């Protein structure tokens, strides 16, 4: 029976046979085509290379291992590298270090087929160290045979654009500020009282004398022209609809009857509890004179515009910075832009980047000599990306602007380029031919040689032309052959397809096939010769490999069967006999159909032969029959071998018995689509079934439903009865759910205690409700688990498709949202999805935005809560606790925002900020001679996922050392350690550089004694949930006692968290707990408050007061 290794060896053999066959065929075709159509081939190659190197954007090819295999000149120039320097680099080497990890993932997804392509803006590092911005497109480029093994990168330099965008943003900001300052009058309206106060300028603008204030708002509104009142009223009403501000223009009627044009803006200064505006402030400005001036200027410019627009040449006007301020119709037509699109652009942005320096020098020269005008040629980039060759006649204007007339010189340029292109094509045709060319004089001295042959031999043109006889480049054997045949060549003047061996400069041998023709004088004597050489290295290797293949044919573990063009078997190998039982004598001369099992129909075989006829190859699974009559599955590849004319001469079939593989695949398929614990469909099969249900509903305009089910308080079962009981419960629930509906429904376990039910067709939502009621009822029935009768409930969320969502991802999200709505409703219930349920998600988004602003605006605060050494009453250390203090709000505890930070990358930034704050505080306390103390810092699982986390902390620690007695502890929750086993190594590294390691919230997970021994832990912190229930909770009391005993048995320090009562303190002291922390001693303190207590160093009197004299001896020893 075939093994995986046999299968692999056979595939290698088949691939090798196929490659060798194709290589020999390609070589024969190449030689023939080279003799007949060399010029056509060379032109095609030249065109392709010209396109690659002639485009105005950067192009590069990147291999699967991330190295450059090719790049055009634009790509090299943008990065500042020579071609050979760039090819020596990896693609990630040119990326900004901050982008490398993300781009590595993008490349992997592209190569794995998970992404079809990628487009985005990236930062590249030039050879000179400068950062440039590029617009990047990455796509997978197909290779021979359809394999996708490389990436094609296309880039455009957008550094200027990015810089311009930043500058425009700053300018816009400055202009906005200037306009704000230019407003002439201010006012303030209190909506609660209806009273308005205004500046004297405001009264003046309205033609009124300042009067005793406040006045009603109507005092001003009544002066507005009646027909202009509606837009003003709508603007003010918008503030009551939630808008922050408005701007509006209107006319007012002055006391003398004249009208004045006003620009006004208003903004809400404060709002009430329900969002209604309390106080609105605003400004007003007289813009009448400005409008008159603008109209006068427009009249003047119109006369100039008539002449300007009708000029036949393009005319452009730019300011000192080279920014277009105007352009006529001809210029816009030439460049393909509208006037509005062109205005505001920089002329340098339309200049080829290679000409930017020349353009800058030209403009500088014009600015130095205002009387000077200059006529120069440039290429301006049109809107469609093409470049237009133009002649610019440029001069400076007295006001510092410059004007240029633009003349299209495309026809002139095309004529010049055609001449240059023809000359270049002639040179390239010779130099870049796929074969070698050289010319010899009568004595055999090289007088001309093309670049291809130079590259083959490794010489420069200067080393060979006029200096070397061709015999100097031949091996001794080939020299003898040359001397023997040269007289005959001089006589006949021609030689065809003679093999020679040339010596490369490095001493290696180059086998070539030579054809030569002589150039004769008038008397018929050979004056010189022209020689064509073809590299036949691949042909020689192919011959050798064919000999090897013949040996492999008989020794491979894969069956090989060869037929002629009439599909008659002509050869089989030993593996064929071993697998099928047929000997060569049994099958040679017969048709392979004798192996047919009848399991696959005629359509299958038609498809097989269609593939072979169309593509020359077929590969797939097929069922054959052995000589014994036993059917077996085989993985077979059939290749059609063709001659020079394209006619099929034979078929090569390679196959192996995959019976064992098929059995394994079937087992793996079951495992892949089935939940191992419950036997229900898993998430993978659920996703497939849901996609099918959605597609069916779309095709037939039907409704369906998705029910998301989560068991209520399942964790309590796990915590109290153990994981095995939890598993038993899940199995029982799965069995009940299996009885709940029709066969076409899909019931899946998605993970943990989460289940999903797909109803592919419901007549109305009530059908889904009936199913949900049934499920809730079934789950809530008592059951025996681990020998105990327990009752559990379920919360069910219902989403209807296509009403609530039309795609699987969104449908699952809204069903989840509805399920959490059911939990909030009181558990043991079901809930249909409603759009308002997404409010919770919006709140999370608001927290995320607020946190990002908090980090930038320094709204985070570190408080310190001391830990007390119970044996001495001394302060043993403090824990750094982060708080968020938004402006005009109270202090927010971590419970309200840390979970959001954990779901994003913000936890990394917050963690770094806390560590920096702690280091700064240590330095400050050292300077103030505060007694040394250890400060504990909490670290999340997400922070440890950063591969550079430990190194970053090492650097921060080094920057603020020495600590002179101060120290830093790292606190990690027990659940974090269990969910991220790799954290253990990071903790060892942290401990090695001086950190003390504590396990926080201990007792909430399932850490074993053996696992704790393997960790570099110094301290266990008992979770506050156990301490809270002391002394009334016997379970919590027992757990706390066990943790203290276990910690001491491991030589660890044990800390009780959340000690708030005297009874709790007495308990942990009696149990021998080492340290305690909680509101009974200290709430979280500011740095200044904590410093005061650190200077005292002890809370012994308080402990004696709480515990009594019986404990006094503990601190007197």
From TrEMBL:
Residues 44-114, 300-373, 422-493, 545-591 form the PAS domain. Residues 118-170, 246-299, 496-548, 618-670 form the PAC domain. SMART domains: EAL (SM00052), GGDEF (SM00267), PAC (SM00086), PAS (SM00091). Pfam families: EAL, GGDEF, PAS_3, PAS_9. Residues 844-1098 form the EAL domain. InterPro entries: Biofilm_reg_signaling, EAL_dom, EAL_sf, GGDEF_dom, Nucleotide_cyclase, PAC, PAS, PAS-assoc_C. Keywords: Coiled coil. Residues 702-835 form the GGDEF domain. NCBIfam families: GGDEF, sensory_box. This is Diguanylate cyclase. It comes from Noviherbaspirillum denitrificans.
